[in-house]
Fold this protein.
Amino acid sequence: MIRFVPWQNVADWHCRACGYCCKLYSVVLNFPEWLTLTKTFGSETTVTGLNRFYIKRDSDGSCAFLCKCSTNYFCALQNMKPDACKVWPFKVLSEPKYGDPDKAAYTYRGYQLYVYADTMCSGLRYGEPTWDFRTATVKEFTELSLGLRQVQHNTTKTGFRYPQWIR
Ligand code: SF4
Ligand code: SF4
């Protein structure tokens, strides 16, 4: 099964708030993120392993900060959401790694990067990239990955009840 596909195979991405990604992975925290979470919510919300910090998972595998509202899941952290969560389901690399390099190529401010999407996410729609996806969404994922921005607009679920809140 092909796990990662070049971004130019993706028409668009919108989070469906299915919560799948928040049950699938252990979220790795960098040191400042770990410090903020333990100071705010207590050390019991994190775990350590293999010289890394992680968010604690519930017995069913869900992230400790995953909440459910009706049929939607949302992230209780929001302004403290870890970088690893912000960039999911995209991966921005400096070298090509999966599939056709030309399809993964993305030039940002003169730098050649390679962007891939994780097919485990149900929010991906495949096909020719739309204008918005090409010019706004991929750019925002790239800037988040490079640490050039923190605030999410196109890279998080938006909705009437939870503007910029879900996932
Ligand atoms: S990012 Fe993808 S897997 Fe995660 S909640 Fe949104 S649609 Fe589901
Ligand atoms: S987005 Fe929020 S709920 Fe989901 S894994 Fe990350 S911190 Fe947990």
User: Anything to note?
Assistant: Residues 15-21, 88-89, 121-123, 167 surround iron/sulfur cluster (ligand 1) (CB under 6 Å). DSSP finds five helices and eleven strands in the chain. Helices lie at 21-24, 31-41, 83-87, 101-104, 131-145. Confidence is low (pLDDT under 50) at residues 160-165.
